[in-house]
Q: What sequence folds into this?
């Protein structure tokens, strides 16, 4: 008889243990189920790639982009430069010059006008005033008349005569090859100084002109607006040895494809790497019509550069003062 009484108790205990076991199993299964979901939420690589290839306007993003790491930014920036080097293998300063004096004068004259206009003006200027001594002693009114087509001709006359006098009085009639000396010359700022250093003396420098500023912001290399801060930010992304060629590549691209108002996005060789793709015309055929064919060739051209930039052997001439 006692065994009969103990049977229901055993059954109840077994039932209770089974229920507890089932409850524990259910909790465990729920915990296992939730774990993968939490992992999915934190996956970020796709997002970063989408931003690089997406169409979000550059002005909506600050530097550095929130979903692009510093390492990713450096890699993307350097890849863009490599792609542009393939497209513009003969990128060079588009001002005509034969020596460092002509280069510094032409660069000062290029402010607020085109290189083409400067190149049309400087032959007469240098024919009449071939040396710093000649220009330093020039009649300002005669120089103004020559420089009139360049715009702001009075201010530019004052600058080129002033810098010529400074060269004669302070540097023995020679253009100095150091940044701290160049920026002391009237009309010469860091931008002009780096053009001269990079192309007349072979010393690396970043030329932050309007094209350069526009493109590096579109590409989200930096969100800075001050030229000196832009120079510092971009310089930190590249080895110093790349700075001069990088400047040429970016400026050439800005003049030929990535225009201020209507960039030719559909004809752009770096479109997959550009966060601002879509700001301009994306249809390839329509975009081709927006390309600007300037001196030195057009996007994709791999022919020889203009004769003026070839040496006696028919090869691209090195920068003045290099080697």
A:
């Amino acid at each position: 008889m006692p065994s009969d009484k103990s049977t229901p108790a055993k059954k109840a205990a077994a039932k209770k243990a089974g229920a507890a076991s089932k409850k524990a199993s259910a909790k465990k299964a729920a915990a296992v189920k939730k774990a993968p979901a939490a992992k999915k939420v934190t996956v970020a690589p796709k997002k970063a790639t989408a931003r690089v290839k997406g169409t979000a306007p550059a002005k909506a993003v600050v530097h550095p982009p929130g979903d692009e790491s510093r390492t990713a930014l450096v890699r993307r920036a350097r890849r863009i430069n490599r792609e542009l080097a393939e497209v513009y293998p003969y990128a060079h300063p588009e001002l005509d010059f034969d020596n460092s004096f002509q280069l510094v004068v032409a660069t000062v004259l290029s402010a607020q006008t085109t290189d083409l206009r400067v190149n049309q003006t400087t032959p007469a200027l240098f024919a009449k005033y071939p040396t710093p001594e000649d220009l330093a002693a020039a009649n300002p009114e005669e120089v103004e008349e020559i420089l009139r087509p360049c715009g702001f001709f009075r201010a530019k006359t004052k600058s080129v005569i002033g810098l010529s006098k400074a060269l004669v009085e302070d540097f023995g009639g020679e253009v100095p090859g150091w940044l701290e000396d160049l920026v002391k010359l009237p009309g010469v700022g860091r931008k002009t100084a780096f053009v001269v250093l990079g192309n007349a003396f072979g010393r690396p420098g970043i030329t932050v002109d309007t094209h350069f500023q526009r493109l590096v912001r579109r590409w989200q290399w930096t969100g800075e607006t001050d030229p000196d801060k832009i120079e510092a930010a971009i310089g930190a992304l590249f080895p110093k040895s790349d700075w001069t060629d990088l400047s040429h590549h970016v400026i050439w691209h800005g003049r030929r494809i990535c225009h201020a108002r209507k960039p030719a996005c559909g004809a752009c060789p770096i479109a997959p790497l550009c966060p601002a793709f879509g700001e301009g015309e994306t249809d390839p055929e329509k975009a081709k019509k927006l390309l600007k064919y300037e001196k030195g060739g057009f996007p994709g051209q791999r022919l020889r550069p203009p004769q003026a930039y070839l040496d006696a052997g028919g090869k691209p001439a090195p920068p003045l003062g290099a080697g």
